[in-house]
Fold this protein.
Amino acid sequence: MKNNWTLPLFSWVLSTVILEILAITNLHTLPSSGSKQAVVIDEAFFLLIYICIPIFTLITVFLIYSVFKFRSKGRPDKDGPHVTNSRNLSYVWVIGSFILVAFVFVHPGVTGVLELRAEEKRVPDVVIQAEAQKWSWKIMYLKEGVYSRNEIVLPAYYNTKFYVTSKDVLHAFWIPAFRVKIDAVPGMTTHVNATPTKLGNFDEDVNYRLQCAELCGIGHAQMSIPVRVLSENDYKTWLKNQKSLR
Amino acid sequence: MTQLKFLWPITRGLIGAIIGLLVGLGVGLSVSSLTGNPATEINISFSYVFALLGWLLGVGVWNSWIREWIGIKPSYFEAKNWQRYFGFSMDHKVIGVQYLVTFVILFLLGGFFALLMRIELADSGEGLLGPNYYNTIMSLHGIIMVAVAVAAIIGGLSNYVLPLMIGAEDVAFPRINALSFWIIPPVAILLILTPLFGGFDSGWTAYPPLSVTNADGQLLFLFAFLTFGLSSILGGLNFLTTTICLRAPGMTWGRLPIFVWSIVAASIISVTATQVVAFGLLMVILDRVAGMVFFDAGLGGKPLLYEHVFWFYSHPAVYIMILPAFGALLEMVSHFSRKPLFGYKLVVASFLSITALSFLVWAHHLFTSGMDEFLHIPFMAITELISVPTGVVFLSALGTIWRGKLWLVTPMLFVVGTVFNFLIGGLTGIFLADVATDIHLQDTYFVVAHFHYTMMGGEIFMLFGAIYYWFPKMTGRLYNETLGRLHFITMFLTYNALFITMFIVGTNGMNRRVWTYPENLQDGNILIGVFSLLLGLSFIPFVYNMVASWARGTVSGNNPWGATTLEWATDSPPPEENFAHPPKVDEGPYTYGQSGRKETQATPI
Ligand code: HEM
Ligand SMILES: [Cu+2]
Ligand SMILES: [Cu+2]
């Protein structure tokens, strides 16, 4: 009987270790991270991956092991044992999964939400209204009285608050490099914060784009404009130029 | 002529539909001339409603139902062998097959639409469909597959086997059962007609204001969804009542096969949640047709309201899809492991807690919708809580396999594959329940891959597994085992290759419902396209196997699997009244390994 357990338990540990190492060293599926918010979100993402790996391997290893170990050639001529339950195993499983869920809920769940909210509660340095309309964006720099239709320009390291509105149907404001996303809902003003942590622009990295992420009709896929993050000085120059243009 | 008599009900239905259409058009025209509102949508609405009534009356509701109310002798549809499937039959076994065949065909159609999408997406620029057609094809694929996932196991398989499994002669309301099937063809026809009316580009979610302001095809979609919901409510009602009232003597609740429990749980959701989405759809229809402004923000309407109403149904609806799949999985795992189901009571408890909790998590679809942020944490908590009862399904499956005597025929291979697929579907769900990660992943291909892992990897895999399992019951013949395994292996491998890649392009920044995307995602999308094509090919052995084996497969005998539940205690296929002698039950469903166990749950007579 003992025999049945050692091999799968050993393979479970081994495959978990291998997958964890691979995940830590080789998993780069997220776009480049360009904002404080992205750091929080990516941390949560990777933590969840690390938590999921042992669960994945536990069930996969036991599944594969059982299939090979307990298979019979052709139609089984005998029944398996009449085991209908195991109280202890059930308790361990249910309580164990409950504890795991509680853990994931607290961290990265609640902690992630609180970190993002803390960023949001700070007094913003730049306030922008992004107005969506089939199928374009209008970016308004509220304090400076400047607007732009073909790109968003932001200063690095400053906390920017976006107020998002829509003039017709649902749209969504999404910048993959910043990870932040919020719907544009007619009749409502929604908001989201992003604090760029480095310079960047669309030409070098396609994830620097403001992409509509809520289906809004035929032009939805192409409803996207470049994002450019500049140093403080360049940003000020850009603002000045915009003002003189008007 | 007499050979074609079996087509008479459908012909009568079509004639009824045409008469209804004309009457409806007349009513529509008079209404619109009175109100002076734009006429097209008013005409479409009246025409459809009257055509639907005409179709139903013609196809059998008048003859087999209403005539009785007004004191005329009803006339029932009668035909032999395969011709039985073409009329208003009230035999649950006929209706089950009607459902199954219809939905497998719809599944293949939906799959064809998916291939069209993948051809467009093989290139980051404009391809086969372009912006004008992509959204409509995508939306059609979505709603057709949702319908398949909601109805194929419940309406098809459980219609056939549930009454047998509980030792009943038929379902509680055979006429309602027939009605809920004959409502489906108009749904399919409406959907297929949408491209002629400008298509509908709102996805299957149909969020207003887009769904209020786009082409007339949207209205057809709304009516189709509404009609389908009606069918789903009627079906749920029937299975609940049947299980409550028609169990054979001795078939206590504790002796129900687990599949029956899963259908009970799913039916509870069908009869309580569906009318909520129906109301949401109706509000959109009224906005379009009657000029109401429920969702017109300019006039005080609230688009966000629809999202809540929609997901209040549509989240529970994913459990209407997956619970029967869990039931089928655990049912088969016991029979093919030759061991009793591990933790039967715990599983029943978890099915019922999933049913209850499924109503309390809908707003996890709305983390980025702009709803009050106060709601984020509670909805994250309850969503994550659902994984506890869901985890019990894995415990039970693994606990049953452990030290069993596994018989790795095709249905059991599908069981093993589904456990693996659903594991990935469930684990990736945690990323979408977590508010922080969902902010990035919402509306990307990560979500698309996730719900395909649950709906296709979970539900559809189990649909096919269960079709193989009950094929001998339904036809009295064996399917071809080699072809069955070929189907499983090819489907399993290509399916996983395809949707794993979707996770990667999704996290990488590809948003969903798009026909064009940044070039850096090109490679991944080409891979996905190739795998989809291979996945599509994997269904060829299935279709061939089913058709050929049904026509001339080896005769199976009554109980080819040696399974213990009641449906195997009668002939395969069963006689019209299901059991020659009413069965009596005196033990649980899974008696494997008990010393001196009987062949099946029933007392031999
Ligand atoms: C043959 C294999 C399949 C392929 C290649 C495939 C591919 C796709 C693609 C490319 C999309 C569009 C995603 C987007 O842009 O939002 C999609 C959407 C969808 N698919 Fe599939 N799919 C397949 C099978 C299925 C199955 C079996 C189901 C359900 C049981 C299903 C349900 C859906 C749903 C509900 C949507 C969402 C549509 C919407 O956004 O309104 N698919 N699928
Ligand atoms: Cu859009
Ligand atoms: Cu949900």
User: Anything to note?
Assistant: Chain A has a mean pLDDT of 92. Chain A touches chain B through 83 residues (CB under 8 Å).
